[in-house]
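In response to reviewer comment 3 from the previous cycle, which asked for concrete evidence that the modeling workflow produces usable outputs, we include below a single protein chain processed end to end. The sequence was submitted unchanged, and the resulting structure tokens are shown without manual editing.
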Amino acid sequence: MAITTIKPPKRTEAHFNGIFYGLTGVGKTQLLGSAEDCEATSPMLLIDMDGGLLTLAGQNQDVVRPTNFPELQDVYDHLREDNTKYRSVGIDTLTEQQRGISMGSILGEIDEDLAYNDLGRSTAPSRQDWLKSSVHMRKFIRAFRDLSYLEDSEKRLHVFFTAGERTDESRSIGCPSLPGVLGIECGGYVDVLARLVSTTREVGETIQEVRYLHTREYEDDEGVKYLGKNRLGLLGRRVTNPTMDKIMNKWLAP
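The workflow returned the following structure tokens.
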């Protein structure tokens, strides 16, 4: 019986797929928006779950805002089968996708237009609801990740997810804010898992904001281990003031 085989991609043909996570306000949406200034990733289709587009005010960015799973399916099907325009897709954020579309649909709290049905009613999700939402999110991440592995190399996309950040207190682990153990496991689904942080430093007599994209696992002074993954080590230990251009120059280097 014959089997079907494939060959690993060449380094310069490998398309990026990864999750950037961090606290609110560190610049995750801004990082995605920089894809328009990078030849390898422009144009990008931004799938906006957060409603945080003010960050990208004035930019020439194509955005879709799905409000339910059928609309998400339409976007996915277009990118997989019909796309001839976009070189990359950004999902901002996985955390809000889970809280809004996934859990909202499971609990029946939103309608197909993402309008809340009854503001006075609040249903606490059960363990089964959380498990179902985790299944939703695993399938969603895998489906969009695989757009970077399409058989037709001309249709492959660079895929960027963002997510909020949480600390698993029982394990002292910092990870993407996703339900259950998915936040800890999701790095296994992608080539890159990186934490974006923002800090300040003195430069002469001025204070400057500096952002770091940590691309490897590390531990802070309080003993919290932040998860990271950098397949093949292509991005180094971290990227200072990251942009898509900086990231892709490292990723696609021969």
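The first strand starts at residue 17 and ends at 21. We consider this sufficient to address the reviewer's concern, and the full set will be provided in the supplementary archive.
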